[in-house]
Structures are given as C-alpha cells and as structure tokens.
Amino acid sequence: MNDTSDRVGRVFILVVVVVLAVLVAFELLVDYPTDGADLVGVLLVLATIPLAARAAGRLAGSVFPSYNVAEVAVEGPITRDGGGGIPTGPVGQGADSVVDQLDRAAADGNVDALLLKLNTPGGEIVPSDDIRLAVDRFDGPTIAYTTDVCASGGYHIASACDELYARAGSIVGSIGVRGSRFTATGLLDTLGVDYEQFTAGEFKEAGVPFTELDEDERAYLQDLIDGHYETFVETVAEARGMDPEFLRSTEAKVYLGEEARELGLVDAIGTRDDAEDRVEELLGTDIAVREFQPPTGLAARMRGGASAMAYAFGRGLADTVDGDAEFRL
C-alpha cells in the first residue's frame, strides 16, 4: 500500500465527482429552466454538493482503500445478545454482532489480515464457539492481543488465531467449564410454599432451584460439564498444537502474561503496537487498520463507557442468577 498515492487518488476522485455533479446539476436546474425556478435551482445545486461529496468519498474509498487490516474487539462477558442481568464487567456486544463484524471483515476485499482484541473473562459456551468459528473462517493472518483478561471462553476464541499477544499483567487461561445453580428450597420452607411440577422424562427437572439434587441428577449434570470440558481442551490442543494432558493439568488456572508465555499459552508479551508490527511482518507491507464496529446509539455508548470504568477495578466473576443450572466457559 502506498499511502501518498492512495491519498492523492482519493482526493482526485472526490474533486472530479463533486465538480461533475455541480456542473450537471447547474445545467439541469439553473441553465435549462427559463422561468422563475432559477432560485430554486440554485438551492438544489447547493444541496447536491454534500450528497455528491459523500458518494465520491465512498467511491474513492473503494478504489483507493485507506486500510488493509480489520480490527474486531471481543470485550466483556460473552453472551448471545450482549446482556447479562447484573453487570459483572463491561457490557459486551452480543456474539451475533461480533460474528457479523468478523464476517464483514472476511468478505471485505480490502482486508488482508485480522487483528483481534480480547478483553473478556469468557461466558456462554455456544456464543463463544460461534465467535471462534468466525475467526477460524477468516482467510489470512489472524493476530490476537489481550489487554486485561483473556480467560475461558475468551481463550477458546484466541486459540483460533495464529498468534496471541498478552501484557505482562494480563490474566490468561482458565481452560475449564463451570455450571451453576442456586437452591431455594430453604426459602420455600420459610415462606410455607410448596413446589410441584409435572414432567415426563427422569431428568427433565435436573438443575431447577426448587428441589434438592439427588445423586443421579448430580452425576447427569456433571457429565454435561465434563463433555463441554473435553471439547474445550481438545479444541485448544488442536488449534495451538499443545498436549491435551498438559492443558488438563492446568486445572483451569489463570496465569499472568509472562508465565502464560512460558507455558506456551501465549506466543509473545506485547502491546497492540507489537501485534500490529507482527501483522506488518506477516503481510510484508505497511498496514492501516480499520476498526469494525456495530452501529450504536448514544445510550449504548454511555452504558458501555460506565461499565468499562467499573470493570477497571477488577474482573467480574459472579454469574448472573437466572434459575436453572447454567454452563459457561
């Protein structure tokens, strides 16, 4: 990419299109009419200028693109819709929105490489895997970097990238799965409330908060957790070329960046700038990065900013209480 020639080309297209639009509009709206519509025509010509400039800008951007690398961020707890009840971290985008950004980057003919920003403690299993699969579909170098946290579902996503950079103080790892449930039987007894449910299927109610777990139900739910865990371990092991037994031996611990690098969970210690330098090295050319983001309104931006400030005080580790047993990466 030659920044100077591209910039000149974009300016040239912008000037040519605007001048042509003004000339055509003036001819049609001012010169051609012979009655008292001249004043209206002049006003319409003036209105044509910003429209032409906007169209010219889009045209110039497609002919002489100003970027060749896409950056997509995965921040906050990973959920399907970006919600999560009681805030325990920065309010993240929904997984579907992140996948859409990744797919748009993959389909953009100007994009040669992907820079993935990760600052997430993980979250829901399938949404995390949807993002990982979208990263895996990208045809080109994929470099991930983490700021504060790249744990659990976030590390699951990072495993799809060619390399992962972390800061020395980043929290990395937590290759494990957890399930949660609360029990409200004591509360029901105190209130004098009885709970009765009619079901078909022995384990239909396994995990509901209004009954105590029996041993068969506990074993059934643990089997589900173990199944997700094995999938997580095998996916990371294959993607990063690591020994599954070593990953299991970490027992879902988290590590600071330098120790994570020594263990092979991270490829290098560095900042976003270092990740960009690596992308330039892989592409063999200077890069310009475009951040792919979903459109957001003012309320969403304010809510996200306030949540990010709260999250700076530490990781949100509490799960949202929503009733039945819940499994998370």
Question: Would you mind describing this structure in some detail?
Answer:
The chain has 329 residues and is α/β, with parallel strands linked by helices. The protein has two domains: 3-63; 69-173 and 253-323, Alpha-Beta Complex (2-enoyl-CoA Hydratase, Chain A, domain 1), CATH 3.90.226. It has helices at residues 3-31, 38-63, 95-107, 125-137, 153-158, 185-191, 215-240, 244-249, 257-263, 272-283, 298-311; strands at residues 69-75, 113-120, 142-151, 163-166, 171-173, 178-180, 254-256, 268-269, 289-291, 326-328. Strands 1, 2, 3, 4, 5, 7, 8 and 9 form an eight-stranded mixed β-sheet that branches. Strand 1 (69-75), helix 3 (95-107) and strand 2 form a beta-alpha-beta unit. It is globular and about 80 Å long.
